[in-house]
Amino acid sequence: MQFSKSTDYALHALVHLGHRERCNNVGIKELSGALGVSESYLSKIMSKLRQDGIVRAVPGVNGGYELARPAVQITFLDVIQVIEGRQQLFECSNSSSQQHQLLAEEGAVQREQKHPGKECLVEKVMNGAEQQLHQYLREHTIQSVLDEAFKRCSHEVNKK
């Protein structure tokens, strides 16, 4: 599994906006320069984030983008689902195979059930992994990245 460059840019853009949150909004030109990505490509990403209520566009000559809600309320999972979509990562495509039927029957016998379930045991493992990933991504926010960066910066200053 690999996330797209769009997700990478979206997360970095939000960290940049979160860092500047107390100052003012950030124009697309500044943001694209900071991230090293074209304005048109970044505009498409920011448009998706705006449509989902993660950022808001500030109109006018000095307009740009700002976070639509506090950085602590924007999880990595929120951003990934906006950019990548909300589809399930794994889907069993082999449920009618002989192997699948044998595993289902074996599982039913071990659970002392008379009828084998239609549950794919491979899919069960993969769904468990996806749930763990989602939980981890829910626990990490734009603010948690900013806090870690601040800690590291403070630590470096204290070392000198």
> How much strand content do the residues show?
5-15%
Low-confidence stretches: none
Structural class call reads: mainly alpha
Strand order of the largest sheet: 1-2
Average pLDDT, to the nearest integer? 86
> What's the helix-strand series?
HHHEEHHHH
Separation, N- and C-terminal Cα atoms: 41 Å
Number of helices: 7
Please estimate the helix content.
Answer: 55-70%
Work out the number of β strands. Answer: 2
Oligomer: single chain
Largest sheet: 2 strands, antiparallel
Q: Tell the overall outline.
A: elongated
Cα gyration radius (Å): 22 Å
In short:
The chain has 160 residues and is mainly α. It contains 7 helices and 2 strands.
Structural account:
- There is one protein chain.
- The protein has 160 residues and is mainly alpha-helical.
- The protein is built from 7 helices and 2 strands.
- Strand 1 (55-58) and strand 2 form a beta hairpin.
- The longest helix has 19 residues, at 121-139.
- It is elongated.
- It starts with a helix and ends with a helix.
- The model has no long low-confidence stretch (mean pLDDT 86).
